[in-house]
TrEMBL record:
InterPro entries: AAA+_ATPase, ABC_transporter-like_ATP-bd, ABC_transporter-like_CS, P-loop_NTPase. Residues 2-232 form the ABC transporter domain. GO terms for molecular function: ATP binding. This is ABC-2 type transport system ATP-binding protein. Pfam families: ABC_tran (PF00005). Gene3D superfamilies: P-loop containing nucleotide triphosphate hydrolases (3.40.50.300). CDD domains: ABC_DR_subfamily_A (cd03230). Keywords: ATP-binding, Nucleotide-binding.
Length: 306
């Protein structure tokens, strides 16, 4: 569906997309992950042709963005990071307005609006003024406005930023409905749990470069570095310094290791030596978030609180 071939982009002297190549199959949900400033929005703006690449080529459904932009735009829905709605109008009037923006023929406008209201689960809110909607509902309407021309490709730039967990689940449901109806979705996020729930493919972007791209399962299998979680107290940590730098976890501390069995022997020996009781000791596999941290030295979640 989409091929990005050796694409680079600079703002002034600063190169923010560096020779990126990737391809996104039709009907897939493609997750773009990276901390603030990784280049996610810039890459999405290149795909949506808001920006043009300095080098390289982007092809969507066989058409080059350089040559056939008008044709591609008909198949493309872009959900920007910022909510872009007229808040003094009702839900329905916003949808009517965006139908006109997207040149939806008036003969099918009502049918399209009804279908979109169902998809975004706002059928009972169509007469509500936008500013009276919750943040999560506004985000769903923001998505709905990009569905009116029935695009094949949807590009969503952090659609759950600033949304509470319940509303986030409702947005996931909308995205899942879109994936089931065979749309291709590109979904950028700081939240790794979203990517794991929704995406068939995940691309880790860091400082404008693709550092890994695969299914979430394959990335986890490839990065088999294991770790051991142990329930020790912070005051006892000094006895374990020779076993590396642990990370605090829900049940105590997690020690990374390429040889977890050996580490378990070392941990138990140290506990015995210092007479430390242990209630919990288990091998753990890293989450996608941990893998990103290992690869970049940067945490997504800390950066992702904005
Ligand atoms: N119009 C612009 N002019 C100059 N620099 C820009 C511009 N837009 C973005 N940048 C810079 O380019 C880099 C990549 O920004 P981009 O917004 O693409 O990252 P991002 O991964 O989407 O980050 P965030 O999660 O914060 O939205 C950042 O260093 C940013 O400051």
């Amino acid at each position: 569906m989409i091929t990005i071939d050796q694409v680079s982009k600079s703002y002034g002297k600063k190169q923010v997309i560096k020779n990126v190549s990737l391809s996104i199959p039709e009907g897939s949900c493609f997750g773009l992950v990276g901390p603030n400033g990784a280049g996610k929005s810039t890459l999405l703006k290149l795909i949506t042709m808001i920006l043009s690449a300095d080098h390289g080529e982007i092809t969507i459904a066989g058409e080059s963005t350089k040559r056939n932009s008008a044709k591609i735009k008909q198949q493309l829905g872009y959900v920007p990071q910022e909510i872009c709605l007229e808040e003094t109008l009702t839900v329905e009037d916003n949808l009517k307005f965006f139908s006109q923006v997207y040149n939806v023929p008036s003969s099918i406008q009502k049918e399209r609006i009804d279908h979109v209201l169902k998809t975004i689960q706002l059928e009972d809110r169509k007469k509500t003024i936008v500013k009276q909607l919750s943040g999560g509902m506004q985000r769903r309407l923001n998505i709905g406005c990009t569905l009116l021309h029935d695009p094949l490709l949807l590009i969503m730039d952090e659609p759950t930023v600033g949304v509470d967990p319940n509303s986030r689940n409702e947005i996931y449901n909308v995205v899942k409905t879109l994936i089931k109806s065979n749309k291709t979705v590109i979904y950028s996020s700081h939240y790794m749990e979203e990517i794991e729930k929704l995406c068939d493919l995940v691309c880790f972007l860091n400082q404008g470069e693709v550092i890994d791209m695969n299914s979430p399962q394959t990335i986890k299998q490839k990065n088999t570095t294991k770790a051991v979680e142990v329930s020790i107290k912070t005051s006892d940590l000094k006895h374990f310094q020779h076993l590396g730098e642990p990370k605090e976890s829900k049940n105590g501390y997690v020690f990374p290791s390429d040889d977890p069995l050996r580490l378990i022997h070392q941990l138990t020996a140290t506990m015995k030596e210092h007479r430390i009781d242990v209630h919990h000791l288990q091998m753990v596999t890293p989450s996608l978030e941990d893998i990103y941290l290992q690869k970049t030295g940067q945490s997504l979640s800390e950066e992702g609180q904005s």
